[in-house]
Design a protein that fits this description.
By secondary structure, this protein is of the alpha+beta class. Helices cover about 40% and strands about 10% of the residues.
Length: about 200
Protein backbone atom coordinates (compact mmCIF):
# COMPACT_ATOMS: atom_id res chain seq x y z
CA UNK A 1 0.00 0.00 0.00
CA UNK A 2 1.24 3.49 -0.87
CA UNK A 3 2.66 5.72 1.84
CA UNK A 4 3.77 9.34 1.92
CA UNK A 5 7.44 9.35 0.94
CA UNK A 6 7.92 13.06 0.36
CA UNK A 7 9.93 15.52 2.48
CA UNK A 8 9.00 15.09 6.15
CA UNK A 9 10.13 18.60 7.03
CA UNK A 10 7.63 20.05 4.54
CA UNK A 11 4.72 18.41 6.36
CA UNK A 12 6.08 19.45 9.75
CA UNK A 13 6.31 23.07 8.57
CA UNK A 14 2.83 22.94 7.04
CA UNK A 15 1.27 22.12 10.41
CA UNK A 16 4.02 23.82 12.46
CA UNK A 17 4.32 20.62 14.50
CA UNK A 18 6.85 17.73 14.57
CA UNK A 19 4.49 15.29 12.83
CA UNK A 20 7.18 12.69 12.11
CA UNK A 21 9.27 13.32 15.23
CA UNK A 22 11.75 16.07 16.20
CA UNK A 23 12.49 18.32 13.23
CA UNK A 24 15.32 20.83 12.90
CA UNK A 25 13.40 22.46 10.07
CA UNK A 26 10.87 23.86 12.55
CA UNK A 27 13.65 25.58 14.49
CA UNK A 28 15.33 27.02 11.40
CA UNK A 29 12.22 27.91 9.42
CA UNK A 30 9.29 28.83 11.65
CA UNK A 31 7.00 29.49 8.68
CA UNK A 32 5.14 27.46 6.10
CA UNK A 33 6.78 25.72 3.12
CA UNK A 34 6.76 27.05 -0.44
CA UNK A 35 7.47 30.41 -2.05
CA UNK A 36 4.61 32.08 -0.16
CA UNK A 37 5.47 30.52 3.19
CA UNK A 38 6.81 33.77 4.64
CA UNK A 39 3.91 35.86 3.38
CA UNK A 40 0.78 36.78 5.26
CA UNK A 41 -1.62 33.89 5.04
CA UNK A 42 -5.23 34.53 4.13
CA UNK A 43 -7.89 33.58 6.61
CA UNK A 44 -8.78 29.91 6.27
CA UNK A 45 -12.34 28.79 5.73
CA UNK A 46 -14.06 26.53 8.22
CA UNK A 47 -13.76 23.65 5.75
CA UNK A 48 -10.01 24.25 5.29
CA UNK A 49 -9.44 24.19 9.06
CA UNK A 50 -11.36 20.92 9.40
CA UNK A 51 -9.54 19.38 6.42
CA UNK A 52 -6.16 20.41 7.87
CA UNK A 53 -7.00 18.65 11.13
CA UNK A 54 -7.89 15.45 9.30
CA UNK A 55 -4.69 15.65 7.24
CA UNK A 56 -2.65 16.17 10.41
CA UNK A 57 -4.18 13.05 11.99
CA UNK A 58 -3.54 11.01 8.82
CA UNK A 59 0.10 12.03 8.61
CA UNK A 60 0.64 11.57 12.35
CA UNK A 61 -0.58 7.97 12.37
CA UNK A 62 0.55 7.08 8.83
CA UNK A 63 -2.93 6.22 7.58
CA UNK A 64 -4.19 6.69 4.00
CA UNK A 65 -7.43 8.40 3.02
CA UNK A 66 -9.64 5.34 2.47
CA UNK A 67 -8.29 3.60 5.56
CA UNK A 68 -8.90 6.72 7.64
CA UNK A 69 -12.46 7.07 6.31
CA UNK A 70 -13.18 3.42 7.13
CA UNK A 71 -11.86 3.93 10.66
CA UNK A 72 -14.07 6.98 11.09
CA UNK A 73 -17.19 5.11 9.99
CA UNK A 74 -16.38 2.25 12.38
CA UNK A 75 -15.88 4.78 15.19
CA UNK A 76 -19.21 6.47 14.39
CA UNK A 77 -21.03 3.15 14.83
CA UNK A 78 -19.54 2.52 18.28
CA UNK A 79 -20.90 3.88 21.53
CA UNK A 80 -19.11 6.90 22.93
CA UNK A 81 -17.90 10.21 21.53
CA UNK A 82 -17.02 9.55 17.89
CA UNK A 83 -13.89 11.71 17.81
CA UNK A 84 -12.45 10.15 20.95
CA UNK A 85 -13.29 6.63 19.75
CA UNK A 86 -11.49 7.40 16.47
CA UNK A 87 -8.32 8.44 18.31
CA UNK A 88 -8.57 5.38 20.56
CA UNK A 89 -8.75 3.15 17.48
CA UNK A 90 -5.71 4.88 15.98
CA UNK A 91 -3.80 4.51 19.25
CA UNK A 92 -4.69 0.80 19.41
CA UNK A 93 -3.02 0.05 16.07
CA UNK A 94 -0.08 -2.33 16.44
CA UNK A 95 2.44 0.03 14.82
CA UNK A 96 1.42 2.84 17.17
CA UNK A 97 1.66 0.65 20.28
CA UNK A 98 5.14 -0.54 19.21
CA UNK A 99 6.08 3.15 18.96
CA UNK A 100 4.46 4.06 22.30
CA UNK A 101 6.29 1.20 24.05
CA UNK A 102 9.59 2.70 22.87
CA UNK A 103 10.56 -0.28 20.70
CA UNK A 104 10.97 2.18 17.83
CA UNK A 105 11.69 5.94 18.00
CA UNK A 106 9.16 6.69 15.23
CA UNK A 107 5.88 5.28 13.93
CA UNK A 108 7.48 4.76 10.54
CA UNK A 109 10.17 2.65 12.15
CA UNK A 110 7.56 0.75 14.16
CA UNK A 111 5.64 0.03 10.97
CA UNK A 112 8.79 -1.37 9.37
CA UNK A 113 9.50 -3.61 12.38
CA UNK A 114 5.97 -5.02 12.16
CA UNK A 115 6.14 -5.55 8.39
CA UNK A 116 9.49 -7.36 8.70
CA UNK A 117 8.02 -9.78 11.26
CA UNK A 118 10.07 -8.66 14.26
CA UNK A 119 6.98 -8.20 16.47
CA UNK A 120 4.82 -10.78 18.26
CA UNK A 121 1.29 -10.36 19.61
CA UNK A 122 0.40 -12.88 22.30
CA UNK A 123 3.34 -15.01 21.16
CA UNK A 124 2.38 -15.07 17.46
CA UNK A 125 4.01 -13.13 14.62
CA UNK A 126 1.77 -10.35 13.34
CA UNK A 127 3.00 -8.37 10.33
CA UNK A 128 -0.04 -6.11 9.85
CA UNK A 129 0.67 -2.57 11.13
CA UNK A 130 -3.04 -1.73 11.32
CA UNK A 131 -3.79 -4.77 13.50
CA UNK A 132 -6.10 -3.59 16.27
CA UNK A 133 -5.00 -4.53 19.78
CA UNK A 134 -7.36 -5.18 22.67
CA UNK A 135 -6.94 -4.78 26.41
CA UNK A 136 -4.83 -7.69 27.69
CA UNK A 137 -2.86 -8.22 24.47
CA UNK A 138 0.90 -8.63 24.92
CA UNK A 139 3.29 -7.13 22.37
CA UNK A 140 6.84 -8.47 22.36
CA UNK A 141 9.95 -8.65 20.20
CA UNK A 142 10.96 -11.89 18.47
CA UNK A 143 13.87 -13.56 20.24
CA UNK A 144 16.24 -13.23 17.28
CA UNK A 145 15.25 -9.56 16.84
CA UNK A 146 15.98 -8.42 20.40
CA UNK A 147 19.58 -7.62 19.50
CA UNK A 148 18.69 -5.40 16.52
CA UNK A 149 20.63 -2.15 16.83
CA UNK A 150 17.59 0.02 16.11
CA UNK A 151 15.58 -1.74 18.83
CA UNK A 152 18.35 -1.68 21.45
CA UNK A 153 19.11 2.01 20.79
CA UNK A 154 15.45 2.96 20.96
CA UNK A 155 14.80 1.08 24.20
CA UNK A 156 17.87 2.53 25.95
CA UNK A 157 17.14 6.11 24.93
CA UNK A 158 13.34 6.16 24.93
CA UNK A 159 12.28 4.79 28.31
CA UNK A 160 11.47 8.13 29.91
CA UNK A 161 8.02 8.35 28.30
CA UNK A 162 5.47 6.14 30.05
CA UNK A 163 1.76 5.67 29.45
CA UNK A 164 -0.74 4.51 32.07
CA UNK A 165 -2.51 2.26 29.58
CA UNK A 166 0.66 0.36 28.67
CA UNK A 167 2.84 -1.79 30.92
CA UNK A 168 6.43 -2.45 29.81
CA UNK A 169 8.47 -5.41 31.09
CA UNK A 170 12.11 -4.57 30.41
CA UNK A 171 13.53 -7.97 31.32
CA UNK A 172 11.27 -9.79 28.86
CA UNK A 173 11.21 -6.91 26.34
CA UNK A 174 7.44 -7.07 26.13
CA UNK A 175 4.57 -4.73 26.80
CA UNK A 176 0.95 -5.27 27.72
CA UNK A 177 -1.96 -3.11 26.65
CA UNK A 178 -3.76 -2.71 29.95
CA UNK A 179 -6.74 -0.75 28.63
CA UNK A 180 -7.90 1.46 25.81
CA UNK A 181 -6.45 4.94 26.48
CA UNK A 182 -8.67 7.78 27.64
CA UNK A 183 -8.56 11.00 25.63
CA UNK A 184 -6.39 12.79 28.20
CA UNK A 185 -3.84 9.95 27.93
CA UNK A 186 -3.35 10.58 24.20
CA UNK A 187 -0.72 13.33 23.84
CA UNK A 188 -1.29 14.17 20.18
CA UNK A 189 -2.35 17.75 19.46
CA UNK A 190 -5.38 16.82 17.37
CA UNK A 191 -8.79 18.49 17.59
CA UNK A 192 -10.85 15.42 16.79
CA UNK A 193 -14.15 17.33 16.89
CA UNK A 194 -13.11 19.18 13.72
CA UNK A 195 -12.66 15.83 11.97
CA UNK A 196 -16.14 14.74 13.08
CA UNK A 197 -17.58 18.01 11.75
CA UNK A 198 -15.81 17.47 8.42
CA UNK A 199 -17.25 13.99 7.92
CA UNK A 200 -20.68 15.16 9.08
CA UNK A 201 -21.06 17.57 6.15
Amino acid sequence: MARYRGPKSKIARKFNEPIFGPSKALQKKAYGPGMHGRGRRKKQSEYAIQLNEKQKAKYTYGVLERQFANLFHKASRKSGITGEVLLQMLESRLDNVVYRLGISPTRRGARQLVLHKHILVNGEVVNIPSYSLKAGDVVSIREKSKSLEVVVNSLTSNRSQKYAWLDWNGSEMSGKMMMVPERDEIPENIQEQLIVELYSK
